[in-house]
User: What shape does this take?
Amino acid sequence: MSYEIKMPALSPTMTEGMLSKWLVEIGDEIRSGDVIAEIETDKATMEVEAVEDGIVTQLVVDEGTQSVPVGKVIAIVSVDDNNEQTDNGKSNTIAVGMSEIGNERELKTQSEGVAKEIQGLKEVALLPAMNWDGPVRNMTVREALRDAMAEEMRCDEKIFIMGEEVAEYQGAYKVTQGLLEEFGEQRVIDTPITEHGFTGLAVGAAFGDLRPIVEYMTFNFSMQAIDQIINSAAKTLYMSGGQMGCPIVFRGPNGAASRVAAQHSQCFASWYAHCPGLKVVSPWSAADAKGLLKSAIRDPNPVIFLENEVMYGQSFDVPDTDEWLVPIGKGNIVKQGSDVTITAFSIMVGKALEAAQELSKKGIEAEVIDLRTLRPLDIDLIVQSVKKTNRLISCEEGFPFAGIGAELGMQVNEKAFDYLDAPIMRVTGKDVPMPYAANLELLTLPQSDDVIKAALKVCYSEEDS
Amino acid sequence: MIPKPKQKRIKNPSKSGRPPKSTRKLKNSKPNKKSLLSMHHDMLLIRRFEEKAGQLYGMGKIGGFCHLYIGQEAVVVGLQSVNEEQDSIITSYRDHGHMLACGMEPAGVMSELTGRAVGYSKGKGGSMHMFSREKNFYGGHGIVGAQVPIGAGLGFAHKYKNDGGVAMTYLGDGAANQGQVYETFNMAALWKLPVIFIIENNQYAMGTSTPRSTAGTDLYERGAAYGIVGKQVDGMDVLAVREAGIKAIDYARCGKGPYILEMKTYRYRGHSMSDPAKYRTREEVDAMRKQHDPIDHLRDVLLREGIEEAELKQQDTEVKKIISDATDVALGAPEPTPNELFTDVLIEVIE
Assistant: This one.
């Protein structure tokens, strides 16, 4: 009897990885706990241990193979029948770190869903909106963010980055990979796990004429530090009559990751966008992530830069230049249309585009706007679009109450009421703390189907029933 | 496209040189008559300024919260007499004394208290939020304890830029129980930041006395777990403050890391103007005033040094004139114009 060993998922959002090294050969006897392979994910190199005793009979995936999907069979191990514990007669499957769930649909996690969306969308949206006809390089959002920081740090020695695990560990999500090596420990600084303290310290350094980048391992932890962000960073310029500028970037992953439940899955867009004295940016594509982060670092004001863990591994074309800047405060029409305006930011842009594709098949042409910046909001772009389409749907992952959609709806109500042919609709996360169970998590997060339903409704489509 | 703001290039910190040598020889712990007189002047200036501020508050000319420094003058004056131009200063909301000791204009401070356009923050900050980049005074912070990590950040910047500066970070006995203070102690010690944490222990965190709020009331020991040297000082004796300051600043400036000075002091007035101060007796306050007043103490020293009483009287007259002029400015100046409402929210970026 034999076992299949499958490519393990080694992090909540991992969808594939490289099998970098086999540490066993065919014919080797392995015992439970032996390290059998090294797998490189987009975040780290991990060791895979055998979970059962046996003899390796087949290495299905060659050493060095890239992009091996989670769940693919990578090796087969035979087990001495005398020790056989199971009696169902079938070949068993072992996927290290992964549990088997019967229902395929329920297994579709947030990240897998997005990966599918992105693959189908490349041609639809991106290049025309990028406003760049020079050479491009395909890179992940993660690499784009790293390049943005590295390029800016090369130009200005006042810029430094601090946060938990940003230096020696190369970033909890590998966003700061290579920065320590290039810039040294004076400028790439591992902090203790004390968000309140190191945020205040960075704010003080900004008052002291430096230009800090503060990484939060996730924005959930910024709540520990929110007093320093709001009361110190955002308000001091005003309270000092314009003397005390605070050029600082607070960045890190925001919103839901995957299966990490309520305390680690929350969108802070509306929290920070509420406050004068801050700029709040939340990019979707790698090109925008790079161009906006460079603009944020150069900005003389405090900027909240909301990334998304699920997006880190997604690849996009990015202009191949050190001077690619995307202005803060400008939205972007990622798909033109005439029937309904759909606004979104961060990960929801992909879902909105997927919805727009489906709607197109039904004869509804949606205009999709990537807000990119939440404060200052590019309300003119939205109002212009609404005047054309006469309908608005706002998408966000965050809670509905007092969310970005509430603000958008109100502003469009004030500025384009006469142009509206249907009530403004919101597609948001559900009004509950994020549940852990896969099926409940999926129900909580807004999906492209929700966007489609909303669009059919505001277009008074016959399909809306 | 956003043009890159003009920035001063600084030396690559990773290639920065050694920290400056000890400053011990530069500072004489025994001040001469001139500096004794100067300290007397500065303490008197703070005292008279605060008395006037109290009066103006009573007349409704100053609004909101107003925390007076009367009784604590020796702390900031003693330390300011020994620090250097490149050092930065940051404190909490009981900040009028610190500003005057930094050399900020009394008229500018008083005008901010009365909410006028010529105030240090154009009337938008008020008593608790004033700043002067020119004098390296970084506020004026209204949230208890928030100035402590910010002060460490100023120290971080001094070290990063290798400019030889020390960050004088003031906090009260109440703030000494804030969590972020200990996060800061840890980082400041870990990274050997040039920061002096000055705990002004005036013995009451608003209405709660130190023994009622604090387990372990020797606040100078609060950095012991992080290996931070701490010293308790008689904060009513400006000469003791000065001497302790010289040692602490020297220690931090030559790269040994942070230092804690616990200044045992006392505020004569309530926590703020609206505090009836029922948590302590009139006798307790009177005893402090009569037996430990920091200005009386220095005055005795000056007289012993042979300074004429008339000279001190002359100084008092001069100080009263400065305060009177500052008050005239603060009451005569216009309020900020309505268009100031929307300025200074963000620094404009020209595209």
In short: Confidence is low (pLDDT under 50) at residues 83-91, 94-128 of chain A.
